[in-house]
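in:
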């Protein structure tokens, strides 16, 4: 699995980012995720996640995690086309 990690907070150490990468690879292996799969994880500030949460979910408060599945639609979800995704 190809994992792209971005720390926009500049808070995490290289060691911490490597640990996150290792955990995600382990989880992907345990769940038999296809090797061609891609995942992007971006660490942002509470202020930035609040804006994303407001713009994409209509909830004007920060959240711990927000995810965008590019090839799956859940109930009451809008299709994500790739254009205009938050680059935070």
């Amino acid at each position: 699995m190809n994992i792209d990690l971005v720390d926009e907070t500049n808070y995490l150490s290289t060691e911490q980012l490597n640990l996150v990468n290792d955990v995600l690879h382990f989880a992907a292996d345990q769940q038999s995720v296809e090797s061609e799969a891609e995942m992007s994880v971006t660490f942002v500030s509470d202020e930035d996640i609040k804006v994303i949460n407001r713009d994409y979910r209509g909830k004007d408060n920060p959240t711990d995690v927000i995810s965008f599945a590019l090839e799956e639609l859940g109930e009451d979800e809008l299709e994500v086309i790739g254009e205009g995704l938050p680059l935070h």
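note: Residues 52 and 86 are 7 Å apart (CA to CA).
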